[in-house]
Amino acid sequence: MKKRHHFLILFLLCFVGYSARSQQATETRLGTLPELSLHRGHTVHILSPEPIQYVDIASHHVSGDLPLENVLRIKLNEDTTQTEHLDYELGTITIVGDNFVAQYRLTVPLWISDTSIPAMLEIRPEHTRPLEISEIGLSRSQMKNLALGLLTKNVHRAVRSTRDYGVGIALNGISTIGDYIFLDVSFTNTSNLSYNVDELRFFIEDKKITKATNVQTVEIKPLWQYQPLTEFKKRHRNIFVLKKATFPGSKVLRVTLTEKQISGRTVNLKIKYGDILKADTF
Questions:
Q1: What is the rounded distance in angstroms from the CA atom of residue 97 to the CA atom of residue 122?
Q2: Fewest 10 Å CB contacts: which of 46, 48, 83, 199?
Q3: Model confidence over 14-27: pLDDT tens digits?
Q4: pLDDT digits over 118-175, tens only?
Q5: Is 161 helix (H, G, I), strand (E, B) or coil?
């Protein structure tokens, strides 16, 4: 019995020691980070392969902004009373994208030649650590790449289409990946008036609606779309990403396009559940 207890105690000690070493191995220390040198009067642009979701700058001597979703601009503050006696080390800058986190060590060299002053830094894969967040699923950059692949395909025959008041909606195709549905939709306008879009909405509703029954309508918000839909004169093609949803054959997915005018033109396209079941897969 004593031998068994000694074995259990030894096992627990070994496990604790292994856990401590594992945690220590996952730490990132300042000295191991790639260095990014800043210089008074110069701006550094950091180019990210994905849209930047979060930035943390450890030093209040450094300011930054996002002129574009995948470009971070940083520089030393212009207040010379703060920057003339700076320490060499300014801490870290942390940049988080859809699927990665990157950190750099900010420094202010006492002397640096003009030819060595960095102007642009591209985030390299070896400087990043992947993020595994199941709630995010597909990132926006991944959705964009998949959408571009769909838009390069020629449309031979629409899955569903409708037209009213000279305005048409055509479902070119449906593709799925994981829990996501990609709808390839085209909008056409044969009238001489530009169509100013008020709303484009998606609903799950009963296929047949009678006055005697209670209508159950559930709106589905798109998770992402390839480009804004505000106005089109003749043609517009777009990709909309929805969270995968199941509904019985007695219901349909309705796409409703409304115009901004007082007597605005409204067009409805109904997609059957069978169409979604026949969707292509990436």
A1: 13
A2: 199
A3: 444 444 444 444 67
A4: 889 999 988 998 876 544 478 788 888 899 999 999 988 999 999 999 999 999 999 9
A5: strand
Which tokens go with 76? 């030393």
CATH number, domain containing residue 69: 2.60.40
Strand partners, 185: 171, 238
| Nearest-angstrom CA–CA distance, 173 and 102 | 37
User: Across-strand partners of 43?
Assistant: 75
Q: Which helix (H) or strand (E) holds 268?
A: strand 266-272
Q: Which of 78, 113, 134 is the last residue of a domain?
A: 134
Q: Is 231 left (phi over 0), alpha (psi -120 to 50) or beta?
A: beta
CB 58 within 8 A of CB 90: yes
Domain of residue 120 covers 29-134
CA pair distance 148, 45, nearest whole angstrom: 27
Residues in the chain: 282
**CA–CA separation, 225 and 281 (whole Å):** 18
Identify the DSSP state of 114.
Answer: G
CA distance 95 to 89: 18
Q: Can you tell me whether residue 172 is helix, strand or coil?
A: strand
**Number of domains observed in the structure of the chain:** 2
